[in-house]
Specification:
MBL; 11 strands; nucleus; binds zinc ion; single chain; globular; 2 domains; hydrolase activity; alpha/beta; 6-stranded mixed beta sheet; Metallo-B-lactamas; Metallo-beta-lactamase, Chain A; 9 helices
């Protein structure tokens, strides 16, 4: 059996600039093209020189697949396609295609317009990059060429997040990224399969946390208390405390939690305790 090669160009043992190069059956696929939010120099981008020292990205790569819109997974995309140079297909789901350019432009404004940093992509580059995107439907098998086949499945995590199965001949790789099995918008699932390699992501693998149920109850209680104070903090001189950071995974999760708990027994119990 020919070998399958997996090369992290970013992330690996780190959180940020997720970018994994998979070579399978003579095909080269880039999985994600993220930004590292902890650096403000070239280290914020994946190490594309691993490929470019041998030639152009377009000649080397058969396709790029973006799993979801978080910047640590898509933030380096316009840099890669417009500044390093890549003209091949970039696959992502429809929701990711809709949200990704908004987050990229937002981050560009902060980085270039506000902080004055250089060596960064422009608004036009984001637009040109998005023209190379081919939208993916979930559960639809896409033939990238005669031999390379990809199929996306919902990964939970955030809207439009996809895990992907890549097949060349009898060999296959599954890239799960950040899957969620408890997401209220739907849990991750995939058809029964036996991939040769499974690539996953594990941000909190060694962290032991309180039960989700307890954290949700504490959170809801704090929200109720804050709303009763008219949105102010416990100290009357403090400003509003109910602020959610847009487009962030935790914000989406908190909003889902609020919506769910609002109709659950937890909420009823809390109200009963309060008014008796
Ligand atoms: Zn994410």
């Amino acid at each position: 059996m020919p070998e399958i090669k997996v090369t992290p160009l970013g992330a690996g043992q780190d959180v940020g600039r997720s970018c994994i190069l998979v070579s399978i059956g003579g095909k080269n696929i880039m999985l994600d093209c993220g930004m590292h939010m902890g650096f403000n120099d070239d280290r914020r981008f994946p190490d594309f020189s691993y490929i470019t020292q041998q030639g152009r990205l377009t000649e080397f790569l058969d396709c790029v697949i973006i799993s979801h819109f978080h910047l640590d997974h898509c933030g380096a995309l316009p840099y890669m396609s417009e500044m390093v140079g890549y003209d091949g297909p970039i696959y992502m789901t429809h929701p990711t295609k809709a949200i990704c350019p908004i987050l990229l432009e937002d981050f560009r404004k902060i980085t270039v317009d506000k902080k004055g940093e250089t060596n960064f992509f422009t608004s036009q580059m984001i637009k040109d990059c998005m023209k190379k995107v081919v939208p993916l439907n979930l559960h639809q098998t896409v033939q990238v060429d005669d031999e390379l086949e990809i199929k996306a499945y919902y990964a939970g995590h955030v809207l439009g997040a996809a895990m992907v199965q890549i097949k060349v001949g009898s060999e296959s790789v599954v890239y799960t990224v950040s899957i969620s099995l408890i997401n209220r918008t739907g849990a991750a699932w995939i058809d029964k399969c036996r991939p040769d390699i499974l690539i996953s992501e594990s941000t909190y693998a060694t962290t032991i946390r309180d039960s989700k149920r307890c954290r949700e109850r504490d959170f809801l209680k704090k929200v109720h208390e804050t709303v009763e104070r008219g949105g102010k903090g416990a100290d009357e001189h403090e400003g509003p405390h109910l602020l959610l950071h847009g487009a962030h995974r935790e914000s989406q999760s908190l909003l889902q939690t609020l919506h769910h708990l609002d109709q659950s027994e937890d909420q009823k119990n809390l109200c009963t305790e309060k008014h008796v």
